[in-house]
């Protein structure tokens, strides 16, 4: 239940001024401003505060190694410091010190938007160059073999077996916490064996393991995407508490992309769209203006959803919005490659919420 900041202050025996300052710094997951007043979920835990001479309350720097980084959707969320649909997602205090990705095009996008610490190589070749220490390891391992749109070969498929590199990285780095992300389909009956094997391998690392399905729409992403996050925390540290949903009412497609309706094609802004004909099997869906968008897929070969009111498929910028990328995030590549990078990404806004929960543990 949403309550006012003053009511929350009373519940926690704090002053409203302190809470306003914390809310302004993004210390609460569920706080949002309605007019001039803050409201937040009454169940939100009071944030752990740590003083750091450098960065102020609760914002000690923590280092992250990122695997299978793609264009950087998850990494952007982990670092924070962006705005989406008028809402600010402040810096989290995490710093990515090393990232790896096999696709040169995705690396180019990553470098332009996130940083030059990305190493463009096959993880098999790059793993020896990885830093020896970091507070956190993150990675959205390739999911084509698990996704319901893929061939469902589970972890025996070449690409999903790549989660073993996250296992390797955790063994080497011994981070305080690691976070592995994959498609919701990992929890389907067909993937029971894969899930069991993945959890077994992560459990053998001696970490507390938990996993949960997240509906991106519950966290302010205008999309019905579902993703699983598997989290491991070092024994002795507090348990990972998943972020509380922040949205009761989903952001609709019209709210997310309505302002782009009159905009002409613009390559630099990735406001370009596929002209693929309606195909027999997939990609015939039309967005509904008053509902969130459908899951944006990486390998849809131009058969991305149609606009809810215009006679065309959605543009790459509109797809990026539906994935909660800020408009300042640019994709310096052609249409199909952009489609792949956007579809592969963890929505930055969802990743930001997960990162904030992880930061509490790392700051302990
Ligand atoms: C699901 S995507 C990750 C997306 C990323 N987490 C994001 O939020 O943007 C998986 C990524 O793993 C990369 N990949 C696949 N095989 C790889 C390998 N052998 N070494 C390094 N990266 C690989 C793919 O190119 C793809 O970008």
List key phrases describing it:
364 residues, alpha/beta, seven-stranded mixed beta sheet, three-stranded antiparallel beta sheet, globular, binds S-adenosylmethionine
Task: Give structural notes.
The protein has 364 residues and is an alpha/beta fold. Helix content is 27%, strand content 18%. The protein has a seven-stranded mixed β-sheet with strand order 8-7-4-9-10-12-11, sandwiched between helices. A three-stranded antiparallel β-sheet has the order 1-3-2. The longest helix is centred in the last third of the chain and has 15 residues, at 348-362. The chain starts with a strand and ends with a helix. Residues 50-58 have low confidence and may be disordered. Bound molecules: S-adenosylmethionine. The site of S-adenosylmethionine (SAM) has 21 residues, from helix 3 and strand 7.
Write the layout of secondary structure elements.
Layout: E1 2-4, H1 5-11, H2 16-24, E2 32-34, E3 37-41, E4 62-67, H3 73-79, E5 82-84, E6 87-89, E7 94-101, H4 104-113, E8 118-120, H5 123-126, E9 136-140, H6 163-173, E10 177-183, H7 192-203, E11 207-215, E12 226-234, H8 253-257, H9 316-322, H10 335-344, H11 348-362
Parallel strand pairs: 4-7, 4-9, 7-8, 9-10
Antiparallel strand pairs: 1-3, 2-3, 5-6, 10-12, 11-12
Helix pairs in contact: 3-11
The site of S-adenosylmethionine has 21 residues, from α3 and β7.
